[in-house]
């Protein structure tokens, strides 16, 4: 069974991620969407919330498994028996950072290759960060994120504003 | 009347920004320098201070208007009736980020095109951040910032050092 | 009257060029599409053919003028009284070359600024070269070039194949 | 059966290409090394020579097939039933060109995804062109090309020098 | 005496830094490794710890001097009589930032040129940040950092975990 | 004696090259300007003409030697006892190609390091090619090339035009 790991923060998952995931699922027998619990920076959603949004957004997709991991991504790959790691490429700046990660991971675990997939044109410059900025400033972008993510982001905003008012 | 929006943080405005502004003012009937009040990170100057420095630095320029905005830049463009948005390009890394913003803004407001202008050679690698670092470390760079900005930066530094001493 | 120059080889004109042209025509009172007769390399179409395809492809557009030029692009700008030069930006590699040209042109003619426009997503990675390769290898890409250009390219191919058979 | 296409000029095949090929062969059930006969530029080796060198260099590799193709790479993918196309990524400049190709190919044949693999560190900046330059100038680089390729390149050089002497 | 300055944060020093240092020491009569005490962000090690690790890692190297500096790097260069500044180049993104710094430094101190050196292949994508992430997540990478740095990093981790437990 | 090699085509030498040369001559005891006789493409000037222009342009510079070479640049470095190779960096696209060359040269001759120098701002986007285009189209750029080069380029143009008329 050929298995691939698709690791990330997914804070939150976007249609760009889902596009990569579908492409990977055509190539591999199983794709494991691995949500990092330790991210080194503050996340908008907790790891449980991120996992739940990934689950809702991938409903109906057959050969996908979702889990969270802490520690090195290569250890997660080793444990799950993944032979490759999936990464989405959006832009040049991504490319260099990804190349750097790929080399380090190859060094730490020689049996793991990184394969890069390119999202569709419309998702080329999409990132979780830009999505959150737009929603935070009350912009509307329904076709770039799953509906469940849109609702979750709006709820977060509301909560945030209420917290501010109480102070 | 052909109107353009030149949005930014301007924390503080530099001669590179002024160079772009002058170029834009030759092409459009009016250029609106729009200072973002919500920036997502700590600014050195408050939005009022940044507005005031912009006003002083652009004194005598005819077809310029200065205002501040919160919310999405496309909403500011819509309200002011701007048909294009001005962005200065300094370097490759800028280019990708700017392209990403341009695409998102186009998506949010189809009538708004982004036009990129390139500053003169001597401002190519200039940024507000590098200016602040140099002034903070007591370096002197009079020909890269307006005089009013230089004084304001030195005053900030002094204030900062006094605050430290009081502690 | 605010006039801009949009120079290029246009060998042949694509929908990406037309997209840039339309954007420029919203900003300026007149946009001059200037076809270079001296290009420094072999062109698929003669300058007359390239001009004719530009004319057909821009039919019905109001504030557009089409002409050919030899010599420096800045001399063409000076003669036509253009205050800015339009360039389309597609990718990073473009960006550097364009920056280099913009600086040289600014040096040769200080009154001419270069403004960069970004084509729509679907034209981001489009070039005349890739179009010609695909048509040459009998691929079909109707929505990336005007119909007149598609016909002209197919005719060129046919002619080319007949020439080969006669030998 | 999951099949991938690895198209290229392979003029000649290098250890960098072989590294990518091996990585692809771990992921897919079959990898088709597809040598382009029409390349749009002069090649050092004829398509037959390039095929033969590919055959010798891949001897003993199990799930590899070698063929040549003319026409569009997507037509070759369609005919062979490949669900993905393999591309090796070496550097940024590669990346943009490859992205452009990937988008055009996706447009021409929606069922074909491009997947990018990164060669080992030592092959990161390797290209057929730089190899040929070094051999042409009598340099020695045995561990970057298969032995059969080294011999073929030296023979070409010898032949070339004899031709020059006869004139 | 031809003297060069090699400034940085060195938080901590890696084998990539040492590789650059050795290359510089072949060219110059003396190379000053200058550790920045003011870095503008939190460091993992104090400036004294960073200096000590640099000293241990460079033991036995002849024409090296180690010092710390606060203030502008050009002032440090002026005081030490350095005629050039050494910078290691790893990747494109580095390149632009470094170019920007080089230009600003040249402006602040005209007698100081920046020279760029490229580390060996195996250190091309190495950074202090990625090293710290791997060690933090309990990965093992002995051949990318000096032994003294490895021990220091593990000790920091242990301390950090103990602090967490006490809370 | 610390000696560096500065190899190139120098077709023709520009003020950008001279700027790099002067910077290198401050660092090394001797800098060898090495003009490649085999360049793999047509040159505007013969190797003798290029050598002569280099000689005229560097008159009065003390620790410079000028020679031509065929074969590998590393062989030239070995013969002349150079311990480093100088390369000028102008732009990102340069950077990658240069990195590739540096790695190959290091592989071919382990004792040779490549050091990169950045030209002054005004030469950042200057190349021999763009200079020749401008002069060919009758543009004037006296401060970017030495006077002797300007005269030589104009003479070449005249000659070229006379040749055309005779046909």
Give the helix/strand layout:
The structure is a homohexamer of 167-residue chains.
Chain A lengths: L2 E6 L6 H13 L2 E7 L10 H11 L6 E6 L3 H8 L3 E5 L3 H17 L4 E5 L10 H9 L10 H20 L1
Parallel strand pairs in A: 1-2, 1-4, 2-3, 4-5
Description:
6 copies of one chain form a homohexamer. Chain A is globular and about 55 Å long. A 5-stranded parallel β-sheet of chain A has the order 3-2-1-4-5. With 167 residues, chain A is α/β, with parallel strands linked by helices. Chain A has helices at residues 15-27, 47-57, 73-80, 92-108, 128-136, 147-166, and strands spanning 3-8, 30-36, 64-69, 84-88, 113-117. The relative contact order of chain A is 0.19. The model of chain A has no long low-confidence stretch (mean pLDDT 87). In chain A, α1 links the parallel β1 (3-8) and β2. Chain A is built from 6 helices and 5 strands. Chain A has a single domain (3-125), classed as Rossmann fold. Helices cover 47% and strands 17% of the residues of chain A. Chain A binds chain D through residues 2, 23, 26-28, 83-84, 89, 92, 95-96, 99, 102-103, 106, 113-118, 120-121, and chain D through 2, 23, 26-28, 83-84, 89, 92, 95-96, 99, 102-103, 106, 113-118, 120-121. β5 of chain B pairs antiparallel with β5 (113-117) of chain C.
Could you state the oligomeric state of the chains shown?
homohexamer
Residue share in helix of chain A: 40-55%
Q: What Rg of chain A, in angstroms, do the CA atoms define?
A: 16 Å
So how many helices of chain A?
6
Q: Write out the CATH superfamily name of chain A.
A: HUPs
Listing every helix as H and every strand as E from the N terminus to the C terminus, the arrangement of chain A reads EHEHEHEHEHH
Strand numbers in spatial order across the main sheet of chain A:
3-2-1-4-5
The CATH class label of chain A is Alpha Beta
**Poorly predicted parts of chain A:** none
Main structural class of chain A: alpha/beta
